[in-house]
Amino acid sequence: MTEIDVRCAAAGAGWSCEATIRELGGESRYSVRVTRDDLARLAPGDGDPERLVRASFVFLLEREPKESILRSFELPVIGRYFPEYGSEIRRRLRG
Q1: What is the Cα–Cα distance from 95 to 16, expressed in whole angstroms?
Q2: DSSP 25
Q3: Whole-model pTM above 0.85?
Q4: Collapsing DSSP states into helix, strand and coil, what is residue 15?
Q5: Is residue 93 helix, strand or coil?
Q6: CB atoms within 10 A of CB 6
Q7: Sequence-distant (≥ 6) Cβ neighbours of residue 44 within 8 angstroms
Q8: Using the 8-state DSSP alphabet, how is residue 24 labeled?
Q9: Cα(55)–Cα(60) distance, rounded to whole angstroms?
Q10: CA neighbor of 4 nearest in space, from 69, 54, 70
Q11: Residue 79 reports pLDDT greater than 90
Q12: 78 pLDDT tier (thresholds 50, 70, 90)
């Protein structure tokens, strides 16, 4: 069972988010930056950056182990590795 905990705090033109992934074998921590523009583009009408980051980690874990995820990144970086990210995350957050 995988547990994803996300906490975001306002920072500049967006949020600084800390994510923790807990699995039976331990936990990993990540730092993710989300801008207001990222939130508007990837989760239109949704004002919750924590929900967006959590959904983004679910997306990532479906494609790679937690050990392969960058420890610190800006949210749009996911799209460089997985071109389907933007459309897929918008679909998931609408449903």
Answers
A1: 25
A2: T
A3: yes
A4: strand
A5: helix
A6: 21
A7: 90
A8: T
A9: 9
A10: 54
A11: yes
A12: very high
pLDDT for residue 20: 98
Q: How far apart are CA 8 and CA 51, in angstroms?
A: 10
User: pLDDT, tens digit, for every residue of 11-60?
Assistant: 999 999 999 999 888 899 999 999 999 999 999 988 899 999 999 999 99
Q: How far apart are CA 22 and CA 13, in angstroms?
A: 29
Give the DSSP letter string of 26-90: EEEEEEEEEEHHHHHHHSTT---HHHHHHHHHHHHHTTS-GGGS-SEEETTHHHHH-TTHHHHHH
DSSP bridge pairs for 73: 32
Tokens of 70: 């960058």
Query: Which residues have CB under 8 Å from 30's CB, separation 6+?
Result: 18, 19, 20, 21, 57, 69, 70, 71, 72, 73
